[in-house]
Design a protein that fits this description.
The structure holds 2 protein chains of 2 kinds. By secondary structure, chain A is an alpha+beta fold. Chain B has 3 domains: 209 residues, 3-Layer(aba) Sandwich (Rossmann fold), CATH 3.40.50.410; 148 residues, Ku70, Chain: A, Domain 2 (Beta Barrel), CATH 2.40.290; 84 residues. In chain B, strands 9-10-14-17-16-15-13 form a 7-stranded mixed β-barrel. Chain B has a 6-stranded mixed sheet with strand order 5-4-1-6-7-8, sandwiched between helices. The chains are: A alpha+beta, B alpha/beta. The interface between A and B is large, with 153 and 152 residues. Strand 19 of chain A pairs antiparallel with strand 18 of chain B. Chain A: InterPro entries: Cell_cycle_regulator_Mat89Bb. Chain A: This is Protein asunder.
């Protein structure tokens, strides 16, 4: 908690001394030999200032690449006074901002008789550390119990040049006093936060040709609030190496060397050579492989010359079979950045990854063989190292989902659900308006999902309506919309009219999945089920007046008045009203029967009627029986229950037939019906195949239980008749 | 979650215990065996997928059974155990670390159940001695606790308060549990030491630590009772500014869907199989208004034949190669998707993401994901890009290594030799290098560049385009001017008449 690396301040010495050359010569004239007598240009060298600036910027590059948030770095340049290049504000935490500020600072001034000192910078650094960062402010002012306990730990990295150890010692003492003074000021202020601990890192640099009188010393405790360390290094070549060593411990980073990267040679495109690229990332990316087998981890850890940290060497592995596009078992994920961002091998690897391909890294094992331990992949222009599980998985050999509950059913509406998923696909969106806690975009998506699943039978056999796509589309889609336009209402109405037309023409409804068991419900039954389901569907989706218009259209078409809402009518009323309605219906049907007599022989109709009324309880229940089970119960009771008019219309023929049938009923009552129990809602229930539990074969029997549903059969089946 | 049973086989386990009920005598070993068998029976009912390993220990330890789901085989092996010398818990715990790291690595949470008799030993290997040494190994502690993996320790102590050693040993056990972290516990039998009380103690421990996670997988109005295997653990993490401790809600709500390719392979703090809940208990009719797709199994006949939303969801996710974003608690998300174990058996898997609304950088803030389409603007796509580009994708200048500087200079010279065709490129690169040099105060480079351009003029072949010399001289001249040291200044190409004439 409260790590020092949350706040880092670089104090850069900008005194005239830093204008001198580092005496580290750089050959920059690489013109290939242009014949004899060619004299290359004299080498150039960077100033101490240039060396310190570029090392500090490199430090920030790594920090901000790996931790875009939460790890803040500020720059203070010190000469005659302190000049602050950026604040803790996230907008100023980037290289561009620093570079342009540095450009305006310019090179160190010429020597003058004035008070140039790095002390100004140290003082400003202490002041800056007392300023709260956004998150510190948020945590301090939050009303939770640990609000007061925010510890302000920080780090100051000074790049300067001192005469000798004594002056270095006095600098540490001065800084200690500055801290104490500053904490006093902070204590008496509301918006400042006292420094609980500061880690002072002094890097003393000198031109490469000079021997420094300053000696390095490791971390030591100056006081309870200050620890300090001194590193004395040559400006040219050593400084940036020193900082990149320090950054590893400051941010707890790890280094991975990706080895064996195949790269095409510039000169010889047909052959490829293997290169290594070193990358930095949080050390935690290695935890899983280094904590395991000690022999294995010793094999991959090496320390390169000039570094005081270890790098883990993992081999490039061209992805085969597994890729980033499937879900890998990833237990950790960290941003990476190349150690040397501009080298050709680095940019090759980077571009390979940024182009969307991924790289697996494999780790050799002492026992022989290797295993894939990491995945490098770019997401949205950022490259991550994914730590994959290398050990055994606790999820091995799981039971298949098909072995579990519901696993043996084969008629799930998978395609339809896929469509529903696509309609509820999530996209990243910009905040358009100020969102309140509840009204997030995601919550709106949840509400939409809720609406889309209001009426959603999950198996094909549990629905009839959704198997009639060629008749009802696009009505089911339109009704899901939040708002309906007039045109859409008309479209829906037309679908209803066309269904009515179909019915009046006695055309059977064709479904693609019909006849799973050879026999689907008969035509009249079909329409009854369809209307019942359609009404239930429309009722749950009545969200606006426009939606209501569609429902009303259906109700009007089917002679159902709006007042006849579910629950409003009770069983008692049913008789009178339905009787009237169905008399009309019956007369109409009789007419049509006469008309269609030649095309549809009476015997055909007759057979269907007989079948509908004498369905044995042993035969597979028709689709209708399962439909109500997935319909919300209140609805199924309301619409397909006793007060529904969508029960199969009762014609005179029906009445006559049922009476004569009842009279002829000489056979003994079915066993099941005799042994059935009466459920509270008036239906009879009996267990089918009572012995099936003893002899459970692979038989696919969806409806293992017969419900003698008088409520869903309509008056024609009423035992009273 | 794998479980290691540390089974004490020291000589003191032979101590006979008289059963007051029937006058029979059992050894503590018999009682321990009975308890462990009960625990294994609990597993076979409640968590068939649990991996259990048994380590027997005295002063040494031995892996009696490697991790297995075959609980019967463990029972058989336990029967054959003999007694050895004295108890060394420290050695045994080292054994646990070795075993677990070798098998599951350092990231898999495991439970360790120490079954011992509460007998206190003395001497160098005793618990008291090892614990008293702990403060001395500071930093790189040799003591096996905390475990080298996310572990939880439960101590089952077969001793009653009548045994005087218990009072001495309990604080030591508590210390062990505390060192292991993750709120384990010490269990002792209630009342006297009988088969019954031991069984009750094991039962209590199992219910505390191994209760199966039964929840509801919900998607709008569709839902299904599910079991998560392994059961999710309380999430605990210390971040820079807060301690996050979260327990998962029992309702896993799918909020929307994404393509698996867009989800990428985000870091998951844990992964769980989402299995349809098989034991069907008809609960009150209170929520009968909802679409209870699972209630048909009231019949109790053939669970495989009762439609389950879970199976539908899995099928559709698999066919469409999509994943569902789930809400697991307040501002805590996970992803469900179809996962196959290499073989044909595929399953619904839940990857639990880190708590917070932004656990996956390339998906952006998950609360800002929306499914509602708008016709006016184009549909945004994944991945969400960060506001700032990373250094490696923005062509930044780093001259710490000489090679970096050399390649930048060579690039300019390459363009210079192809003037006037590359005039634009030449000046673009030149200005880029110049700006970088100015900002880091590398003024000698600017002079060096001027020198190199002038020298390049003298080396031009006779057939060179006249523009070459003109532009190079122009550039060198401007580089030496003081006004070109301004970062906002750009060196513009010299306008020559040759370009248009020559074409």
């Amino acid at each position: 908690m409260y790590p020092a690396n949350h706040k880092t301040i670089f104090v850069l010495d900008h005194t005239p001394y830093f204008g001198i050359s580092s005496e580290y010569l750089i050959e920059f004239d690489f013109t290939k030999s242009r014949g004899p007598g060619f004299i290359p240009l004299a080498p150039i060298s960077k100033s101490l200032w240039t060396c310190s600036v570029e090392a500090a910027i490199e430090y920030c590059r790594v920090v901000w690449d790996l931790f875009p948030q939460g790890k803040l770095v500020r720059f203070i340049v010190s000469d005659l006074s302190a000049r602050i290049l950026n604040t803790w504000s996230p907008q100023q935490q980037n290289i561009q901002h620093i570079i342009s500020s540095l450009a305006s600072i310019g090179v160190p001034p010429r020597p003058q008789q004035e008070d140039f000192s790095v002390i100004h910078g140290l003082k400003a650094a202490a002041e800056a550390h007392c300023e709260c960062t956004d998150i510190q402010h948020e945590k301090r002012t939050s009303l939770t119990e640990n609000a007061i306990k925010v510890l302000n730990r920080c780090r100051v990295i000074v790049i300067m040049s001192a005469r000798d150890d004594a002056s270095m010692k006095s600098l540490e003492d001065i800084f200690q006093n500055i801290l104490i003074q500053q904490n006093k000021i902070a204590a008496s202020s509301d918006h400042l936060i006292a420094i609980h601990h500061c880690h002072l890192v002094i890097i003393n640099i000198h031109p490469n040709t000079v021997v420094s009188q300053v000696s390095s010393h490791p971390v030591k405790e100056v006081s309870s609030i200050l620890t300090s360390e001194v590193h004395s290094v040559k400006a040219g070549g050593e400084l940036s190496g020193k900082l990149s060593n320090l950054i590893m411990s400051h941010y707890n980073l790890g280094s991975t060397t990706v080895t064996g990267i195949p790269m095409k040679e510039e000169q010889n495109a047909s052959s490829s050579a293997n290169y290594d690229v070193e990358i930095f990332h949080a050390a935690a990316a290695h935890t899983s492989i280094l904590k395991g087998n000690a022999a294995d981890s010793a094999l991959i850890r090496t320390q390169r010359d000039g570094t005081d940290y270890e790098t883990v060497t993992l081999k490039w592995c061209t992805p085969r079979g597994c890729s980033a596009s499937e879900m890998q078992n990833c237990i950790a994920m960290h941003r990476i950045t190349p150690a040397d961002v501009n080298s050709r091998p680095s940019s090759c690897l980077i571009n390979f990854l940024l182009s969307g391909r991924s790289v697996m890294l494999e780790m050799p094992r002492k026992a022989g063989g290797k295993m894939i331990s990491h995945l490098l992949a770019a997401h949205g222009g950022e490259i991550f190292v994914h730590t994959l599980v290398t050990a055994r998985s606790v999820l091995e050999d799981p039971p298949s989902i098909s072995e579990g509950s519901g696993g043996r059913i084969t008629d799930y509406r998978i395609t339809d659900f896929g469509m529903m998923m696509k309609n509820n696909k999530l996209f990243p969106r910009k905040r358009k308006y100020e969102q309140t806690e509840e009204e997030t975009l995601l919550n709106r998506s949840r509400a939409q999902l809720d609406r889309h699943t209001k009426f959603w039978p999950i198996t094909i056999s549990a629905t009839f309506l959704f198997n009639l796509k060629n008749y009802v589309d696009p009505l089911p889609t339109l009704m899901l919309k939040e708002e309906l336009t007039d045109e859409e209402v008309v479209e829906c109405k037309q679908i209803i009219y066309s269904l009515i037309g179909q019915e009046s023409k006695h055309e059977p409804l064709q479904t693609p999945s019909m006849g799973q068991r050879g026999k689907g419900p008969k035509r009249e039954e079909q329409y009854r089920i369809m209307w019942t389901e359609l009404e239930a569907f429309l009722r749950v989706h009545c969200r606006t007046d426009q939606h209501n218009r569609v429902l009303n259209c259906l109700l009007e078409c089917r002679n159902k008045l709006d007042e006849d809402k579910p629950g409003a009518a009770c069983k008692g009323e049913k008789g009178g009203k339905e009787g009237k309605v169905e008399l009309d219906q019956a007369i109409r049907e009789l007419d049509q029967l006469g008309k269609s007599g030649d095309t549809q022989p009476e015997s055909g109709v007759r057979v269907s009627v007989i079948r509908a009324t004498t369905d044995s309880p042993m035969s597979p229940p028709p689709v209708s029986m399962s439909a109500p089970s997935v319909v919300p119960r209140s609805l199924s009771r309301g619409s397909s229950g006793a007060n529904s008019i969508y029960s199969r219309p009762q014609s005179l023929l029906d009445l006559w037939l049922s009476r004569t049938l009842a009279a002829r009923e000489t056979r003994p009552e079915f066993h099941g019906r005799l042994n059935s129990e009466v459920l509270p809602d008036g239906t009879l229930r009996t267990k089918l195949y009572p012995f099936i539990m003893d002899d459970q074969g692979p038989r696919k029997n969806v409806h293992a239980e017969g419900v003698l549903g008088y409520r869903s059969r309509g008056p024609g089946f009423d035992p009273a008749l | 979650m794998p479980t290691v049973i540390l089974y004490d086989v020291s000589l003191s386990m032979c101590k006979p215990v008289l059963q007051s009920e029937n006058g029979e005598t059992f050894s503590k070993k018999n009682l321990a065996l009975h308890g462990v068998n009960c625990l294994l029976d609990y597993f076979s009912v409640n968590s068939k997928l649990e991996f259990v390993s048994v380590i027997a220990f005295s002063s040494l330890y031995e892996i009696i059974s490697p991790f297995t789901r075959d609980f019967e085989s463990i029972k058989q092996k336990l029967q054959q155990l003999e007694e050895y010398d004295k108890t060394s818990i420290e050695t045994a715990l080292h054994g646990v670390n070795r075993l677990v790291l070798g098998e599951w690595g350092s990231a898999t949470p495991c439970q360790v159940i120490l079954v011992t008799d509460g007998h206190i030993d003395f001497g160098p290997l005793s618990l008291k001695e090892s614990l008293s040494n702990v403060p001395h190994h500071d930093g790189n502690s040799q003591f096996p606790l905390p475990f080298l993996f996310p572990g939880k320790l439960s101590v089952i102590c077969l001793a009653t308060p009548q045994e005087p050693s218990l009072h001495q040993v309990l604080p030591l056990y508590r210390r062990l549990v505390e060192m292991a972290g993750a709120n384990g516990g010490v269990f002792t039998p209630e009342g006297s030491l009988t088969l019954k009380s031991v069984q009750a103690m094991f039962q209590k421990m199992a219910e505390t630590n191994f209760a199966p996670f039964v929840g509801t997988l919900k998607c709008g109005n569709l839902e299904s009772r599910v079991v998560l295997s392994p059961a999710p653990q309380t999430y605990y993490k210390e971040t820079d500014f807060e301690i996050v401790k979260r327990a998962m809600s029992s309702t896993i709500e799918v909020c929307g869907f994404m393509d698996v390719a867009d989800v990428g392979s985000p870091m998951a703090i844990s992964r769980h199989l989402v299995l349809p809940h098989t034991t069907t208990k008809v609960e009150g009719d209170s929520n009968s208004v909802k679409m209870e797709v699972d209630t048909e199994d009231e019949s109790g006949l053939g669970e495989g034949n009762t439609a389950s939303f879970c199976v539908l969801l899995h099928g559709a996710l698999k066919v469409e190669n999509m994943a569902g974003l789930c809400l697991l608690g307040e501002n805590w998300f996970g992803v469900v998707y179809s996962w196959a174990d290499g073989k044909k058996k595929s399953n619904l898997m839940l990857s639990v993401l880190e708590p917070g609304s932004n656990p996956v950088p390339w998906l952006g803030d998950l609360n800002n994901l929306g499914s509602t389409k708008s016709d006016t603007e184009p549909t945004p796509t994944f991945p969400v890009r960060p506001v700032e580009k990373r250094s490696y994708s923005q062509n930044c200048v780093v001259w710490i290594q000489q090679a970096g500087l050399q390649s930048d200079i060579q690039k300019i010279l390459r363009h210079a030799r192809k003037l006037p065709d590359k005039t634009q490129h030449f000046y673009k690169e030149l200005n880029r290098v110049r700006r970088a040099a100015i900002s880091i105060g590398f003024i000698s480079l600017l002079e060096g560049l001027a020198d190199i351009f002038e020298r390049e003029c003298t080396l031009l072949p006779g057939a060179a385009h006249p523009d070459c010399a003109l532009q190079l001289t122009h550039a060198a001249g401007v580089l030496r001017k003081p006004y070109s040291r301004d970062i906002n200044f750009s060196i513009a190409p010299l306008r020559t008449k040759f370009v248009s004439d020559d074409s």
